[in-house]
Amino acid sequence: MADELAETTKSLRLDDPKADDLEEVEIAEKPVDEAPRAKKHPLEHSWTFWFDNPNGKQKQATWGSSLRAVYTFDTVEDFWCFYNNVLQPSKLNAGADFHCFKAGIEPKWEDPKCAHGGKWTAQPPRSGGKAALDTYWLHTLLAMIGEQFDESEEICGAVVSVRRAQDKIAIWTKTASNEAAQVTIGKQWKDIIDCNDKLGYLVHEDAKRQEKGAKNRYTV
């Protein structure tokens, strides 16, 4: 699946037009690809893009109030149709979050699939500018939807958080207590995004109880 995805996306990237002047994420809710379904390349899972905080205002007390599902896809072609017609993370306002989760899973701690899990977090190097953020995000998405992780069933989704102080990208997983699975995901992700810094895994329950005092359960 991963090889097929990589092969297909090479041609799709060249064929699909980009619309860098688009200013609204919701503009891509309608698929722009009208190719017959039989010619598309299906993915192992369906995925949903979510967008939060479109005004760039982050208020902890109202977190999630502006979270909304934007687009669901289950083929390689539909992924690129959406991806190439929305703003890159580097163009979003500070405070915005863009999520890509398996269909049926909401990017919230309260979702049953996420409740007992946690997340790996990476910070793109500032030396690379905003371009590093876009690269990390794209490589993470392709690895997820292309099932490149050995423990892919453990993965719930990923989120990119645009912040003035430090942009972040995180991969959410289901079972925090499964150390072997989480460490495997962390190591593979580190290779995928070519990250030289240490990555930490924070358990959702620890984050809820200890807030800013919570510490990483695992590191790679």
From TrEMBL:
The keyword Disulfide bond applies. It holds the Pfam family IF4E. GO terms for biological process: regulation of translation; translational initiation. Residues 1-23 are annotated as: Disordered. Residues 10-20 have a biased composition (Basic and acidic residues). One of its GO terms (cellular component) is eukaryotic translation initiation factor 4F complex. Keywords: Disulfide bond, Initiation factor, Protein biosynthesis, RNA-binding, Translation regulation. GO terms for molecular function: RNA 7-methylguanosine cap binding; translation initiation factor activity. It comes from the Eukaryota. Belongs to the eukaryotic initiation factor 4E family. This is eIF-4F 25 kDa subunit. It comes from Physcomitrium patens (Spreading-leaved earth moss).
